[in-house]
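Pipeline run #58 for the internal structure catalog. This entry was flagged by the ingest filter as a single-chain record with no existing model, so it goes straight to prediction. Upstream metadata was stripped on purpose; only the residue string is passed forward. Reviewer on rotation: M.T. Logging verbosity set to normal.
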Amino acid sequence: MRTFLFAILLLAVGILIGVVGKNEVRWVLANILSSYRATFHPHESFTDRALTTPQLDELLTAKGVTRGTPVFIRIFKAERELELWMGRAERFTLVKTYPICAFSGMLGPKLKEGDRQSPEGFYQVGRGALNPNSAYHLSFNLGFPNAYDRAHQRTGSYLMVHGDCVSIGCYAMTNSGIEELYGLVRAALRNGQRQVQVHAFPFRMSAANIDRYSNHEWIDFWRNLKQGYDVFEATLRPPGVRVSGKRYVFDPPPLSMAGN
């Protein structure tokens, strides 16, 4: 019986590889395994000691923030950069810019499972999105599909920021980079920040870049993203984000980060 079930499993995996490719199957199986480990083997979670370094603590002190201060993250595909911002009600401060080690696909949003696209849009990370048992060192789930994605019938799962410098739809960092990011996101959530906003853009949303891509198929979507980008640029506080009429709508930035 076990031999028969194993043969069925191998056949199913073979069919999946034929349909969506070996890398996608490996990706899904790895994330299922990491979810299992997180549920049934929590003692395997990554040691806190690895998430703290004297160099990062010195940088936080120089920037006037501490572990537990609210966090905000921006991602720029074309520049392959991830910005870490931290702050309070008055404004956020750019603490560090990390190189994105790998992302997959081209400029443009993720549309469906298996398209190998890394998402673009406005996402939120809560405590349940943190995975210390990730098959890719450490990770936090972006929460794709969000309300906007669902309104446009977009599908996908396990869209993460993680380590190990390999990506099929995720944003992959170096292991040292994800250790710093994971530790600071977790500290902010533990200290009362309910959601960490992560804004993922195709490129830095300057007027010049919008003009450069004015004939691109996704220019209307990107102009909508730019509205949220501009709110933060003007206030240095993440805006409230909601969806109406299948578009992102941005409310004035809240004075308290507890709700973000």
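catalog note: The CA atoms of residues 98 and 177 lie 7 Å apart.
catalog note: Residues 2-20 form the longest helix (19 residues).
status: ready for reviewer M.T.
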